[in-house]
Amino acid sequence: MPVHEHPTGATDLDELRRRAVAAAPRREAGLVVCENLVRIYRSEGVEVQALQGLDLTVAEGEMIAVVGASGSGKSTLLGILSGQDVPTAGGAEVAGHDLLTMKRRARLDYRRRTVGFVWQQTSRNLLPYLSAAENVMLPMTYAGIRRSRRRARAEELLDLLSVGHCRDRTPDTLSGGEQQRVAIAVANANEPRVLFADEPTGELDTATSDEVFAALRRANEELGVTVVVVTHDALVSEQVQRTVRIRDGRTSTEVLRRVATGEDGVEVRTAQEYAVLDGSGRLQLPGEFTERLHLRKRVRLVLESDHVGVWPDEAARRARAQAQEASDAQEALDAQDVAAGGGSGR
Ligand SMILES: Nc1ncnc2c1ncn2[C@@H]1O[C@H](COP(=O)(O)OP(=O)(O)OP(=O)(O)O)[C@@H](O)[C@H]1O
Ligand SMILES: [Mg+2]
Questions:
Q1: May I ask the CATH class of domain 32-253?
Q2: SS3 readout for the chain
């Protein structure tokens, strides 16, 4: 059907469009942006809400650690962001790719070129019958890179990650730490924008996991790839500038670390913990705070000029004060009884 244009129609429509854009919720800027991300697993009538409205933004070039109890949703998040799994609802974008609407072909291409992945199990990252260099060259074959270029890039990557000496050896002749460093080289073969690693040091001892972690840092600093690493290792998470904690399928707190130089020229490392405020204004209070002040069910919020006060519910506070008074009175009575008895028990 032809569209009849009214002389003023275009302007009206432009105005409506402008207003619609202005009214739409603005997406955070970042290389990785998750907004209200939900992943529900259903099997045999049982529903598991692995992600329950998770918000996360990672800037280009950042290296962050993701921590959280077992079952909190860390691997589910990485599975979605790396294009292996599809979210149930919410928003997830990586380097401009919308992970909810992405079609099969685009998803395959995304997994080959935009992201790299390192698993915890060393055996899962490498093909056992190929040498280290051949393992690194394999993803480049899929991407259609020339053979001479493949060999040169594989050697550069292995050298950068201090495993150049392993290039002609198969995985079974490498240590666990060497295998993981080769795996980081494989994951970076096609110059991905983001590298995801799910507990890459989980099977290694402390000294070896330090080397693997150093290789991840190297990839971040020298290749410019953004890194998101899931870890249980506090020593690892302390080495990055930002650690995000997941609790029950949501980001709950973030620790930001900074290095500042004092007036005396001495470098001071500081770490500050922040609660995560989601797009709807929700935040999770730490358990130790709610227990100490007996915050339960209802709290009163008071807006001050530069902060928000969270107060125990007045009724609950009064009930607790009464209970305390009653228990003090009982103690006083007991003490009187003991005094009246003249300490006969002793
Ligand atoms: N394929 C699946 N089918 C059903 N439930 C699943 C599936 N994958 C994960 N879950 C459930 O989703 C929740 C989150 O699991 P996930 O593997 O993401 O946790 P995690 O934080 O990686 O834990 P861990 O530290 O033990 O690796 C758990 O309750 C888990 O049992
Ligand atoms: Mg996991």
A1: alpha beta
A2: CCCCCCCCHHHHHHHHHHHHHHHCCCCCCCCEEEEEEEEEEEECCEEEEEEEEEEEEECCCCEEEEECCCCCCHHHHHHHHCCCCCCCEEEEEECCEECCCCCHHHHHHHHHHCEEEECCCHHHHCCCCCCHHHHHHHHHHHCCCCHHHHHHHHHHHHHHCCCHHHCCCCHHHCCHHHHHHHHHHHHCCCCCCEEEEECCCCCCCHHHHHHHHHHHHHHHHHHCCEEEEECCCHHHHCCCCEEEEEECCEEEEEEEEEEEECCCCCEEEEEEEEECCCCCCCCCCCHHHHHHCCCECEEEEEECCCCEEEEECHHHHHHHHHHHHHHHHHHHHHHHHHHHCCCCCC
